[in-house]
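Quick review question:
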């Protein structure tokens, strides 16, 4: 009974090792890994591309110089994208400040316009009151002269 369990465990271990070798053999195709890495990099999927390149390097250590050069190129692309993003962010901040300044100036101008309109309305009311008073005084003087 113990012997059967041992033999069974041995077979299970052998099957696992065989399955692991088959999986590893399928994954370890240098050209395929490199093609996949280049495709991922072309679609700006740099993290997965670097993982594929590292797998390719592990698959064929004699090609490590070629792989390392490609990894360096990807890091250079990443660095350029980061610099562009920083530059674009700065431009966006400047544009936002300009827009905010323009908006404030517009609001100030609207306030000045409202004040000017209110002052004009008040001046017109004063003019009308003064004219009414003048007409009222003229009417009173006209009545006084008629009564004489």
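Suggested answer, residue by residue:
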């Amino acid at each position: 009974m113990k012997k059967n369990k041992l033999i069974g465990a041995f077979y299970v271990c052998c099957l696992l090792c065989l399955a692991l070798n088959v999986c590893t053999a399928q994954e370890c195709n240098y050209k395929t890994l490199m093609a996949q890495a280049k495709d991922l990099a072309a679609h700006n999927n740099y993290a997965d591309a670097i993982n594929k390149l590292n797998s390719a390097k592990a698959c064929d250590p004699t090609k490590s110089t070629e792989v390392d050069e490609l990894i360096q190129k990807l890091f250079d692309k990443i660095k350029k994208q980061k610099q562009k993003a920083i530059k674009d962010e700065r431009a966006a901040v400047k544009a936002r400040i300009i827009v905010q300044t323009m908006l404030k100036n517009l609001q100030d101008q609207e306030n000045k316009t409202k004040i000017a309109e209110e002052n004009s309305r008040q001046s017109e009311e004063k003019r009308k009151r003064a004219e009414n008073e003048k007409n009222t005084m003229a009417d009173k003087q006209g009545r006084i002269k008629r009564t004489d």
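Why it works: The chain has one domain: 2-147. The chain has a mean pLDDT of 84.
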